[in-house]
Amino acid sequence: MHTHNPSNEFDQLRGIIKNLIQDNDEFVRTHEPEYFDPFEQQQHPRATVVTCSDARVHTQALDKTPDGDLFMIRNIGNQIATAEGSVEYGVRHLHTPLLIIVGHVACGAIKAAASNYSSESDAIKHELNSIQLPIKTDELTTDDWLRGVIANVNNQVNYALIKFADEVKEQILTVVGAVYDFQNVLGQGQGRLVIVNINGNIDTMHIAARLLELR
Ligand SMILES: [Zn+2]
């Protein structure tokens, strides 16, 4: 059982703050002022990324130098509806040619959305209500959980394709859906970003051919 012990919590907090400050010190030490030159005055990101707040999902898995490069939107369940203005800003104001939705295996938001979450707070319920899943159950199997993650990614891509239909038609925007697999449940390597949807096309052969073209 978790017991509240103010002195333990103070020690824990001190440890976290200390780590943050130390890591930032190291970042400052290892990054010359020139590093910041390209994006010190403005940002020209190449991608708008909608991903989950989950602590196991971070940009270093997909971009070695995300600074100035990725316009990041994070929320539970990697949704557009709960952060629509931010997504719109990336696409319509910063004109990123790519909008990528990154879901992930073992997403707690998907599990929660599939179950009875009526006892959650209004704020959490609000952010779970917009996740539409094929299966609603409190006893989600691993397979159904993964299917739910993929279904949500596809729903988000479809939402974007309707919202940004003009940009996609003009070919100034491509919408991609992906699943970040830190458990290797998809068998393509632990930590793999698996593309599951390109502009609404979920056919694996089509995706493979398109990615080959783009490489
Ligand atoms: Zn998640």
Can you tag this structure with a few keywords?
215 residues; alpha/beta; Beta-carbonic Anhydrase, Chain A; 5-stranded mixed sheet; 5 strands; globular; binds zinc ion
Task: Walk me through this protein's architecture.
Helices cover 43% and strands 16% of the residues. It is an alpha/beta fold and 215 residues long. It folds into 2 domains: 1-30; 42-214, Beta-carbonic Anhydrase, Chain A (3-Layer(aba) Sandwich). It is globular, with a radius of gyration of 19 Å. The chain binds zinc ion. Residues 52, 54, 104, 107-109 line the site of zinc ion.
At a glance:
This protein has about 220 residues and is an alpha/beta fold. The longest helix has 25 residues, at about 5-30. It has helices spanning about 5-30, 35, 85-95, 110-115, 120-130, 140-165, 165-170, 205-215; strands at about 45-50, 70-75, 100-105, 175-180, 190-200.
